[in-house]
Write a structure and sequence with these properties.
mainly alpha
């Protein structure tokens, strides 16, 4: 029972982190306008340079954070559907996946 409570509290913590990081990831950077005052079209914009290793790590973290957010939303919906006394196997597996992904994100963000 203690393992379930510990796992559930970790899942709640992961939900909070994912929500905060998800909000931060959705903030858009202000777009730059050319000196002529016209906005650029995505079709006319030149190809971007390849990402540096740091930018790639950050992009991977953002992508994994968005995936974590999606998984936690799915887990939340499945828990809401489940009986108050039992959890389905899919809920437990999804919670384990959330834990693994959250730990991975946490470890990778510490190394940057």
């Amino acid at each position: 029972m203690k393992t379930r409570a510990s796992s559930f509290s970790f899942t709640i913590m992961a939900l909070c982190i994912a929500s905060l990081l998800g909000i931060a990831a959705t903030v858009q950077q202000p777009s730059s306008t050319p000196s002529s005052g016209k906005t650029t079209d995505a079709k006319t914009e030149p190809a971007k340079a390849p990402l540096t290793p740091e930018e790639k790590k950050r992009a991977d973290l953002v992508a994994d954070t968005e995936r974590l957010y999606k998984l936690t939303q799915e887990l939340k919906a499945e828990v809401a559907k489940s009986n108050k006394d039992t959890l389905s196997v899919s809920v437990v597996k999804k919670a384990q996946e959330v834990e693994r992904l959250a730990k991975s994100i946490k470890d990778r963000s510490r190394t940057q």
